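Duplicate of #3305? Posting structure anyway:
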């Protein structure tokens, strides 16, 4: 990624010494749970045919240790994670000249965590989780609007529970790569890898 003049400014805390614990840096970069879902991130998994598989999802929450995301249990990504529970997420903040890539192991979240994440979603995303199925996908836009309106009419504006297909996952980092750009200096990256004893190795990379 190229930082264009005027597009980004160096961020002062990025000039500080690299912390020994990358989770601290992640906590400084990622929003707190109170700020609600987001930012978006590219979630990469291994396709069942061996090709990479990637799509955008919302970061539901960073709990200080793990990155949470939510999806439909019938989705391709859920099947891929069942086959191989490993993933990478890429979060980019172009205006702050930052990119974070996290690679790690994925587990399902608890029911309580999944319900809390559902409650924190907008009404639109809550309804979407109910009506976004394979059958509706091939319908016309008008028919999808009718189905949406019928769902909302049936519920009468009541608070929604998550559907059975609501599925949450948490990614525990094994590797973390923090990219920092600047308008007046070369970009660089801090690469962290978790050792077997749980501590982290740290290296500076160009690029
Ligand atoms: C901005 C944006 C945010 C999205 N957030 C989510 C999300 O949080 N969860 C999700 O399952 N899909 C989300 N999607 C849809 C996914 O990108 C994807 O199309 C869908 O989950 C199906 O992916 P799959 O077939 O690879 O499983 C989002 C799409 C966009 C464009």
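Output from current build:
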């Amino acid at each position: 990624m190229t930082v264009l003049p005027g597009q980004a400014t160096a961020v002062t805390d990025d000039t500080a010494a690299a912390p020994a614990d990358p989770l601290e840096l992640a906590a400084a970069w990622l929003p707190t749970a109170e700020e609600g879902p987001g930012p978006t991130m590219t979630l990469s998994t291994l396709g069942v045919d061996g090709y990479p598989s990637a799509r955008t999802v919302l970061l539901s929450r960073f709990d200080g240790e793990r990155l949470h995301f939510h999806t439909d249990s019938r989705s391709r990504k859920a099947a891929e994670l069942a086959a191989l529970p490993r993933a990478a997420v890429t979060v980019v903040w172009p205006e702050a000249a930052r990119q974070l890539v996290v690679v790690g192991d994925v587990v399902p979240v608890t029911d309580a965590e999944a319900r809390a994440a559902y409650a924190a979603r907008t009404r639109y995303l809550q309804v979407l989780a109910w009506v976004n199925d394979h059958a509706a996908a091939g319908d016309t836009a008008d028919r999808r609007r009718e189905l949406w309106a019928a769902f909302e009419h049936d519920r009468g504006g009541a608070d929604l529970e998550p559907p059975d297909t609501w599925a949450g996952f948490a990614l525990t980092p094994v590797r973390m790569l923090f990219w920092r750009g600047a308008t007046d200096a070369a970009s660089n990256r801090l690469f962290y890898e978790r050792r077997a004893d749980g501590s982290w190795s740290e290296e500076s990379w160009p690029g």
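Confirmed duplicate; merging threads. Residues 12-121+166-206 form a domain with the Pnp Oxidase; Chain A fold (CATH 2.30.110.10). Strands lie at 40-46, 52-58, 61-62, 67-72, 86-93, 98-108, 166-180, 188-194, 200-206.
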